[in-house]
Amino acid sequence: MFGSPCATAEHAIANLLEKVRNVSKTIVYETRSGLKMLITSIGICKQRPYYILTGVWVDGCTKELITGRIHETVPPGECEDWIQALDKVPVLDQEGVARIIGQLDILADTVQALLEREQGGEYSAYDLQLMNLIYLLDPASPEWLQGILGIVVRILGVEFAGYASNAADGDQFTVVETTGMPKDNSLQGASFFYGEGFLGQVGLSKQMGYWRNADRDLRISFFAAHGVRPKVLICYPIKYKDKLYGLLYAGDPVRPELTEEQADMGMLVAHQLAASMYHMESEALYERQRKRHDTYKEIVQGILVTQDKEDYLQLFIEFFQQQLGSPFMCLLLHTPDEAGLRIYSSSSAPNELYTVYAEDAEQIYFADGIPGFNLLNKPIRREWKSWQLVEHPMVFEQRLLGLFTVQFSDEGQRREYETIFHMTNVLLVTKLLAQQPQNTPSGTDFMRLLQDNLLIQQPVVHSRAADIRRLAQDLLEPLSHSAEEMEWIGQAALLAPYPIGLLIKYLGDIPAVCVLRHMHYYLTDYNGQEDVGESSHLYLAKVLLMLTKYTEQGGRHWKETLPIPVPEPLMRSFEQLIAPPPVAVQQEGGVRFTTRENDILEGLLTGLNNKQIAEKLFISTHTVKNHITKIYEKLGVHSRSQAISQIYQATGKKDSL
Fold first, then answer.
1. Topology given in CATH for the domain delimited by 579-657
2. CATH 3.40.50.300 describes domain 306-441
3. DSSP 281-338
4. Which of the residue ranges 201-205, 429-433, 571-575 has the most confident prediction, judged by mean pLDDT?
5. Helix (H, G, I), strand (E, B) or coil at 344
6. Which of 316, 311, 313 minimizes the C-alpha distance to 299?
């Protein structure tokens, strides 16, 4: 590793530390073999007798050189072992190294505080530094909770600590992790109800509980039943934004009490634990939404391109069954061209059961003279033969065409999929009616369907298309273009993410599609020859292309990405539109934003609305609005589009943040 003649690794490390003993900051040290490590020194009393060595890793280019070196110098029989060992070495880029350096700095400060405590340092400062270790723990690690409980025990000076989870939002808490307790009496897996014993009362009140002489109180039965009798006991509710995740508790069978300062330090740990759990839950929710949107995009494309009705209806059922794993799911279809109900079902329940259900549903919803349900156009919850079903109507012009019925695992699953069900229902109705000439939906209806789908699948792209629409109106209105042409640009921007062939098939040669077709030619087939078509459509295609490149690329170099020349008058008008207002910051060093304002700007530039920015940053929409107001003041603008335009024009997205 070191390429050193030293007899042992210890000697090689000692020689290395001798070289860096006067270095006071974290450094990257590359050995002669091409492997790299980080070295952080820890100063005590103006000396640096302690070091943290972290590694090893390589960068991508170096790894190829090391591999070649192995083949040149290592005997053929040993090459495979060397290559396998090298494959286990992480490959890091500069961003990854910078992240680790930041963590090492925190760790070094913490270790320094621990060492100074041994020399008579301040205990409270020691505890605060010890809490910094929480930031270094990885929530994705199986040992994450165990690490936090270890910190709690050290800060409070108690013998044991534990965490009871309420993950299922049920009526019980279950102990999922403990530390400082015998393995045979660790309490793990033990459960208690709200209001039961010391811990249950904290779960009920959602307020911290603290008890001295707890071993003399009958409420100690939960602990006593497992051979634990603490004299002092403290319990913190782990809650964030009114949601209770669980309970953090700690105790000691010998100590009679805790100091107020210790209890406060434990509360700080509880707050950090609650925030971490909220963030993990939010990230998990975002990941589930992303996966649903990606899969939904696939099912939309699949339904649109599949011609056979039997195939795309079965595809619809199989898609949702794969997502939900429902024990009961079926689609009942009652279209004008067919007599009776058609049943499309998953294999999660016997076919005979679906047949009985269809007979019951036909009598309730599809019989002649049955009013109300087709006008409601909202899901109905109904218990049927012990099944808790949610029935989603498929309605067109107050006519009930079908019923999509599901049993969800819980209310959370129903809420997550409700919007997608609605949108897919609309898609199915449109597809079914499109195959019946007498009921074919209009192009306007289908266009609205595609635009709504875009909002569900790709909200950022939808928001960017809305920005293009606003820019087009600001650009074309002073040039005396008609409102109709501005509408074509807006429609084309919202339809641009869809395949041009699909749009031509379902919408025909409407102006918005013609504009998109010309823009597609400029992007893919332009060879210096102008496309053939109406002059107004060609002109609008260039406008749309220009606005698209501007909103996608931003900065001062977006014009360089244009594949075609844009008429000079049009370009000049657009540059005047996006030029910074007179109050634009021209101070030395440019606009100065806080870290949080930079986070807000990042959201604005990627097309997020206030609510999405708030959810991403785990702050309130009110706070987002306050930050945006301050950003407007610093930029000297009065609207979101002006702010975005100024950032793009003046410095570019990447340079400004």
1. Arc Repressor Mutant, subunit A (1.10.10)
2. no
3. HHHHHHHHHHHHHHHHHHHHHHHHH---HHHHHHHHHHHHHHHH--SSEEEEE--TTS
4. 201-205
5. strand
6. 316
The highest-level CATH class for domain 137-283 is alpha beta
Task: Determine contact, residues 450/498, Cβ cutoff 8 Å.
Answer: yes
DSSP codes joined into one string, 2-47: -----SSHHHHHHHHHHHHTT--S-EEEE-TTS-EEEEEEEEETTE
Decide if pLDDT at 587 tops 60: no
Interior angle at CA 162, CA 161 and CA 166, nearest 5: 155
For 185-229, the pLDDT digits (tens) are 778 889 999 999 999 999 999 999 999 999 999 999 999 888 889
Confidence of residue 65 (pLDDT cuts 50, 70, 90): confident
Query: Vertex 358, ends 352 and 360: CA angle to 5°?
Result: 110
How is residue 84 written in tokens? 């396998």
How far from 643 is each of 555, 585, 648, CA to CA, in Å?
13, 12, 9
> Which residues, 6+ apart, have CB-to-CB distance to 341 below 8 Å?
332, 333, 334, 358, 361, 362, 366
Between strands 232-240 and 380-384, the pairing is unpaired
394: alpha, beta or left? (left if phi > 0; alpha if psi -120 to 50): beta
List all residues 6 or more positions away from 115 whose beta carbon is below 8 Å from its beta carbon.
42, 44, 50
Q: Are 159 and 254 in contact (CB under 8 A)?
A: yes
Q: Do domains 306-441 and 579-657 have the same CATH topology?
A: no
**Which sign, positive or negative, has the C-alpha torsion 492, 496, 501, 502?**
negative
Amino acid occupying residue 221: S
Helices (H) and strands (E) in the chain, counts: 26, 14
Q: Are residues 156 and 265 in contact, defined by beta-carbon separation less than 8 angstroms? A: yes
- Six-digit token string for 244: 């209770």
Cα separation, 550 vs 552, in Å, equals: 6
102 vs 645 pLDDT, higher one: 102
Cβ pair 493, 548 in contact under 8 A: yes
Residue-averaged pLDDT of the chain: 80
Which neighbouring-strand residues pair with 91? Answer: 58
The label of the residue with tokens 């793009």 reads 648
According to DSSP, residue 365 is labeled: I
What tokens were used for 520? Answer: 């597609």
- Which residue's entry shows tokens 């689609």? 331
Q: How far is residue 280's CA from residue 54's CA, in Å, rounded to a whole number?
A: 27
Do 657 and 602 form a contact (C-beta atoms < 8 A)?
Answer: yes
pLDDT band at 130 (very low <50, low <70, confident <90, very high): low
Tokens of 298: 């696939």
Structural domain boundaries in the chain: 9-57+93-117, 137-283, 306-441, 579-657
